[in-house]
Write a structure and sequence with these properties.
Helix content: 10-25%
Structural class: alpha/beta
CATH architecture of the largest domain: 3-Layer(aba) Sandwich
Largest sheet: 6 strands, antiparallel, barrel
Shape: globular
Distance between the termini: 44 Å
CATH class of the largest domain: Alpha Beta
Strand content: 25-35%
CATH superfamily of the largest domain: HUPs
Radius of gyration: 22 Å
Order of helices and strands: EHEHEHHHEEEHEHHEEEEEEEEEE
Number of helices: 8
Number of domains: 3
Strand order of the largest sheet: 12-15-14-13-16-17
CATH topology of the largest domain: Rossmann fold
Length: 371
Amino acid sequence: MKLEPNNAIAVAMSGGVDSSTVAAILREQGQSIVGLTMQLWNQRRLPVLLGDGPAIGRCCSLDDVYDARRVAEHLCFPYYVINFERQFEDTVVRPFVNDYLAGRTPIPCSRCNTDVKFEELLRTARQIGAERLATGHYARIRHNPETNRYELFTARDAAKDQSYFLFGLTQEQMASTDFPLGELTKSEVREIARRAKLPVAEKPESQEICFVPNGDYAAFIEAYVQEQGSDLAESDGEIVTTTGELIGRHSGLHHYTVGQRRGLGLAAGRPLYVVSLDTARNRLVVGDDAELARDTCEVGDVNWISFEKPDGPIEARVKIRHRHEPEDAVVEAMDASAARVRFREPQRAVAPGQAAVFYSGDLVLGGGWIL
């Protein structure tokens, strides 16, 4: 299939109300569009995790593909499902497993955005004749004529903002991408969907990672490693305090993340939290809440968006988790792909593997992965 060169736009369709509303908005504007859904993961893979059947409430399921096709038929535009399972496993699933086994807490949605949605899908869109890609993300892209760079901003609806997951976008990707929902609130999106009589107008949002049934990361990792013909090395090990006192045993470091309190299986008479994961000695290090505080962290694989690289230290507000309120910090580039973040006030549970995203007001300066 090849579209006529008529400024067509490809719409990344997840089967949910957001991407479906994007299609409705563009159709109402008279745009020529084509719907593309990414087949990312075989939901029947790893049958030991399925229980009574594939879990519901996750994006990219077979039901979502069906819903996206219904929307395309309702709005009368061509629609195709593109198989990206190999790319998704190579760039998202396998790094997710490896990160957990290395004591980090990964964010697969960020890697999927950068390496699959805005890389592979944009390439596919161009191959079929679409010049641009539109998605249902809540964020905003603008071109700055003074710097001749594309800039990323938070969404108007702060409760739905997804800029934290988009820090990896390149200038080339942003130049060809549209976020039609960036200036809308979620309630406004629902109302547009209702007016357009979309069959998914009242569909609830997906909450889980698409390839992890019921949010059980540890069970997924164990099943995936076994499927790959391997075993988890040194699964169980010691639980020690920050002073080295042995107080228990853990069932595998992949069950834990920095800041975790529940599920430690300890009766210490006081609240204890995961402070760090010592993968070299297969030890889980726990301590008091105060021991979670850090005022400095280093960040790798940094992507600067608003400029090539700052010449010196910059003032920024830094977010270290999706639901974390950005905090004042000084960010200093160590080289082209690394930076050091010094918080004005110590931050709780700075977890390796999470993203640190740098903001100036509603402008995203850049971001990277906490080391």
